[in-house]
Design brief:
The chain has one helix and nine strands. It is of the alpha+beta class and about 130 residues long.
Length: about 130
């Protein structure tokens, strides 16, 4: 019995180490972000994709024209940088993508409904740009 538990423990550790080797901290896209609350856990607005967008790495999400997106934060970029928002897709047609949060260019969407007009600005952290 002890050998079996040891083997299971070893397999779990190897799996975790293997999984961790694929994770990486990516370049920060901005030093601060605008959110509905201090934890960025509430939706600011709803937006609709104006055209398709293909994610360039794991920080981003793919968008399909017409797709609805819940917007959780809006990055406040340095002067001259692109403007990205973070969100999650919505809709029965996109069940496989629902719940996945990532960044997308704000010029690819039209904000259709604002849920939270009062927002807070908070600093971004390395975990905001972590790829797993």
């Amino acid at each position: 019995m002890d050998k079996s538990l040891g083997l299971i423990f070893l397999l779990i550790c190897v799996g975790l180490v293997g999984h961790m080797t694929h994770a990486a901290f990516m370049e920060k896209l901005a030093n601060s972000k605008i959110c509905a609350d201090k934890d960025c856990s509430y939706v600011i607005s709803m937006a609709q994709a104006l055209e398709d967008y293909v994610a360039s790495d794991c920080r981003y999400i793919n968008l399909r024209r017409g797709q609805m997106i819940y917007v959780f934060s809006k990055l406040k970029p340095a002067e001259g940088a692109g403007v990205f928002w973070s969100g999650s897709v919505y809709g029965e047609r996109y069940v496989d993508q629902m719940g996945v949060i990532g960044y997308f260019p704000s010029n690819y969407v039209n904000e259709t409904h604002v849920f939270q007009k009062k927002t807070v600005e908070i600093p971004t952290t390395g975990m905001d740009f972590f790829c797993a």
